[in-house]
Amino acid sequence: MKNENILASIKSKSIKETKDEINEILTKLEKKDVNLTNSLDDYNRLLQLNKHMDQLFKEKMKEISLSKNKFKK
Does residue 12 have a pLDDT over 70? Predict the structure, then answer.
């Protein structure tokens, strides 16, 4: 799943907002009386949120690396 495939409603989320929604979905999925159809939708959204979180962390690492290199000069 490439970044272009991530929904705009997810792309606009911050790390905290993404983490909060991931936790919310996980809580729903852990319930015993969960609807299987809804669970599939939630799971697919969870995958997109996860991919987005990964991208956000990669961007942060890049920023940190660039700022670290500036201090070395």
Answer: yes
